[in-house]
Each structure stands twice: as C-alpha cells, then as structure tokens.
C-alpha cells in the first residue's frame, strides 16, 4: 500500500492518473486492479475527462445538489459549516477500482482519475493506493 498527499483548494479537481499509473508500474504486476481510496469524508475520487470546463462544471453541479450555506443537521453536531461537503463526497464516492493490463491502467482516451476536495476550505488530502 502507498499513500499520496496533496494540498488542495476548496472545490479543486486534481488529475492523479500519473501518480496511480506510476504506482502500478512500480508494483511489478502485469495485470490486476488498483484500489484508489480518498481518506476522509469530504473528499472524493472518480473518473472524468480532465479538462478546464469539467473542472468547473463538476463542483458547480454538485453545489446544486448540496448547496453551501444551506442548513445541514451535521452543522449542529460539530458546530461547523461543511455539511454540504460530506453530502457531495458521499454522492461521488471515496473509492475507485481501476483495472490494469501490461502495467497500464485501463482507461478511455479522455478518462482520467481525479481527486476532489469538497471541503469548505483548503485541505491536505490523503489517497491510499493498493494493488488487488
């Protein structure tokens, strides 16, 4: 298992495909799958076409689903302001399994693995990688 750490801004979408690909290559395995897990409950991982428009569209659309500034019962529990962040993370998900063959991730031409910070502030995001 390997852990990666990234400093991320609020609503930042980051391409982590190169780091995951390097981990697969260093594993020495030719075929299998890699688990990608975002540690924490306000981050998420998924795949998408990593381009400027979608980097803006995804956080904007998630704000429609779980708007910042609304009342969330979570705020009463911890006296904080990131209830929307937890909802967004739960909807997108915190883990992903990606197959690989010949030491290469099996991804579409325009498909990248992305890490998203949905928290209401900058965060240090940790990602766990594990070969299955």
UniProtKB/TrEMBL annotation:
<dbReference type="Pfam" id="PF01894">
    <property type="entry name" value="YjbQ"/>
</dbReference>
<dbReference type="InterPro" id="IPR001602">
    <property type="entry name" value="UPF0047_YjbQ-like"/>
</dbReference>
<dbReference type="InterPro" id="IPR035917">
    <property type="entry name" value="YjbQ-like_sf"/>
</dbReference>
<protein>
    <recommendedName>
        <fullName>Secondary thiamine-phosphate synthase enzyme</fullName>
    </recommendedName>
</protein>
<comment type="similarity">
    <text>Belongs to the UPF0047 family.</text>
</comment>
């Amino acid at each position: 298992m390997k852990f990666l750490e990234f400093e991320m801004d609020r609503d930042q979408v980051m391409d982590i495909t190169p780091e995951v690909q390097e981990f697969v290559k260093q594993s020495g395995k030719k075929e299998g799958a890699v688990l990608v897990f975002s540690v924490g409950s306000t981050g998420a991982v998924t795949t998408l076409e990593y381009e400027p428009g979608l980097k803006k569209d995804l956080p904007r659309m998630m704000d429609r689903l779980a708007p910042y500034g609304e009342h969330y019962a979570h705020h009463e529990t911890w006296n904080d302001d990131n209830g929307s962040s937890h909802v967004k993370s739960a909807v997108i998900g915190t883990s992903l399994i990606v197959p690989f063959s010949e030491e290469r991730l099996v991804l579409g031409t325009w498909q990248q693995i992305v890490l998203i910070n949905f928290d209401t502030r900058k965060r240090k995001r940790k990602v766990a990688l594990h070969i299955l």
